[in-house]
Amino acid sequence: MIDALVHALPHVFAPANLLAVVIGSIAGLVVGALPGLTVTTGIAILIPITFGLDPLFALGMMAGMYNAGSYGGAIPAILMRVPGTPASVATILDGYEMTKRGEAAYALQVAVVSGVIGSALSAIALILFAPPLVKVSLLFGPAEYFWLAMLGLATISALLGDDLVKGVTASLIGLLIGTVGQDLTSGTERFTFGSLELMDGFSIVVLLTGLFALPPVFQMAEESIKEGMSAAALKFRKQRSVLREWRYFLPVWLRSSAIGVFIGIMPGAAGSMSSFLAYNDAKRVARSPETFGQGNPEGVAASEAGNGADNAAALIPALSLGIPGSGVAAIILGGLLVHGLRPGPQLFRDHPDVVYGFMLQMLLSAFLLLVVGGLAATRIFGQVLRLPRVVLAPLIILFVAIGVYAVNNAMFDLYILVGVGLVAYVMEKLGYPQAPVVLGLILGPMAESQLRLSLTISQGNPAVLVSSWVSIIIALLTALVLVTPLYRAWRERQRKPAAA
Amino acid sequence: MAVTAGPSRRIVEIVFAAALIAVAGAVFVLSADYPAESAAFPRVLAALLALCAVVVTVRQLRHGAEAGGQPFFAHLPRFLLAVVILVAYVAAIGVAGYLLPSFALAVGLPFVLGYRRLALTVPLALGTLAAIVLIFNVVLERPLPPDVLMHLWETVR
C-alpha cells in the first residue's frame, strides 16, 4: 500500500491534476453554498464535462467538489440561516446565532477548520481501511457478488429517504433501465425498439446528469427567486483565531470526526445524519449543554467536523466493494464507471495509480479547503451567491446541455436528458430517492450476469446462492436491512393506537 | 391558488404509480419475445416494480387524503413554462446550433419568469458562453453542435 501511495504521489501533484483539485474545490464551494444545489448536482454536472479527460484530472475535480461542497453549505447556513445542503442544517442552530451576535467571521472560521479536520481524518480512514476491505472481496464468487449487489441496493433503498417502498421502487427503475441494450450473454437486444443509440443501453453520463442536475433547475424556475444574497452579508471583519484555540475544540473535533467516519462507512447511512449525530453527541457531553442552539461555537465545530468526516469514509465500501456509503458516493461510483474504472479488487490491482491517487486527492482537497474556504476566498467566490437563482437556472442548463451533447455528439442524448430530468423532478417531489436508480443501473448488469453465472455453474440449482457462509451472511444482512424499517413501521403503528 | 398549484400531490402519486404499473406491464409483454434466459431478469423486476407501485397506490387510496391534499407544484404555470422552453431549446439546438439558442435561453428564461434586468443577464450569458466555447471547443477540443453562426461566418469569409 505504501509503495502504491508513493507511486501515486507524483501523479497527484502533477500541475494539471493539482489544478483540477483547485477548480473542483472552488466549484464545490459555490455549488454547496448555493441553496437548491447540492454536491450531488455539482458532480452530476462535472461528469459529462470531464468525460474523456485523464481519470485523475476528473477524479481530482470530484474530490475537490465533494469536500468543498460539503463545507460550502455552511456559508449560507451561518450567514443567512439557509442551509446550502441538507447536512448543514445542524450548523444553522449555533452558526446563525453567532452571526446575530456579530461573530459571522469567527463562525465561518470554526466551520472551515472543523470541516478540514473532519475531511482530512476521513481521507486518512479511506487510505487505511479501503485496501484491507478489498481483500475481503477476494473471497467472493458469482453468488457472493450477486448478494453484494442486492445488499448495496437494499441499503441505499432502505436508508436514503423515508420510505422503503419508494426506495425499492427507485432501485427497480434503475435495474430495469440497466437491462436496456444488448444482453451480453445471449446477444439478444432488449427494449431497444430498433434504435442504434440504445444498443449499448442508456449512457450513464446522460442519466446521472438528468437525474441530478435538472431537478434543481426546474425547482429554481418554479420558485423564481429574484433576489440573491446582499453584498453586506459578505463583508467580514477578522475576529478570534480558531487555530489558537485548538485545545478547546480538539475533543469535539475528534469525537465528531470519529462519528462521521463510522457513519460514512456504513453503506447507505452517510449524508446529513452524521452532522446531526455529531452535534447531539457534542451537546450530550458538553459542560453547558444549555448554550447549544444559542451560538455555541462547539455546535458549529461538531456539525461541520461530522459532516466533513463522512465524505471520504463513504467511499470506503464504494471503492472496495462497490457499495456506496452515501448518495454522493453512488454518483462518484458512476463517475468511476464512466472512466472505465470498476470498483473492487480489479480497480486496486489494475489502476493503483488512479485509486490511490484519488484517495490522496481526497486528503489534499481537505487541506485545500483552508485556502479555498477561508474568509478572503469566501468573500470572493461568494459573489456568486449574489446572483438571483432565476438567473442561475438557465446557466446550469447551458453547461449540462453541452456536456451531455459532447459525450456522443448526439442530439438523441439531449432528448433523453430532458425526459429523465422531468421524471427525476417528479420522483424527487414525490419522495422517491434518485441515488438507488443510479445504483440499480450500475449494479443491475453485474447482479444479472453473476446470478446467471451461478445458475449455469450449478446447472440451474438455486441452492447455489446460499451454498457458502459468505453468501449466507450477505443474504441475511440484505434481509435484515430490508426488514428493519418494516419492523420499525410496524412498531410505530402498534404504538399509535396505544397512545390514542 | 388553484390555477397556479395544479393537481394535488395525492393525484400525482397515484398517476405516477399507475405509470409505473404500465411500464412494468409493457416490460412483461415485450419480454415474451426474448429467449427465456434474457427475459427472466427483466420480468422479475417488472413484477416487483408493479407490486411496489400497487402498494403506493393502495396506501394513497387508504391514507393519502390525510396529508396528500396539498398541491404538488409550487407554481404550475412557471414549471410548464420552464419545460416548454427547455424542450424548445433542445429542438432549437438541432436546427440552429448551440450558441444562439443558448443565448436566447440564458436571457429569455429569467425574462419570462419576471426577472427583467438585461444589464445583468446579457453580459452573464455572453460571458458564460465564451467560457463554454473556451473550455469545450478550444481546451478540450470537443465539437459543438453544428451552428448556424459558423455557416454564416464561413459564407462571409
Automatic annotation (TrEMBL), chain A:
InterPro entries: DUF112_TM (IPR002823). The chain crosses the membrane at residues 12-31, 43-65, 71-93, 105-130, 136-157, 201-221, 248-270, 314-338, 358-381, 387-407, 463-487. The keyword Cell cycle does not apply. Residues 18-439 form the DUF112 domain. The keyword Transmembrane applies. Keywords: Membrane, Transmembrane, Transmembrane helix. This is Putative tricarboxylic transport membrane protein.
TrEMBL record, chain B:
Keywords: Membrane, Transmembrane, Transmembrane helix. Pfam families: TctB. Residues 15-145 form the DUF1468 domain. The chain crosses the membrane at residues 12-34, 40-58, 79-100, 120-140. Coiled coil: none annotated. This is CBS domain containing-hemolysin-like protein. It comes from Chelatococcus caeni. The lineage of its organism: Bacteria, Pseudomonadati, Pseudomonadota, Alphaproteobacteria, Hyphomicrobiales.
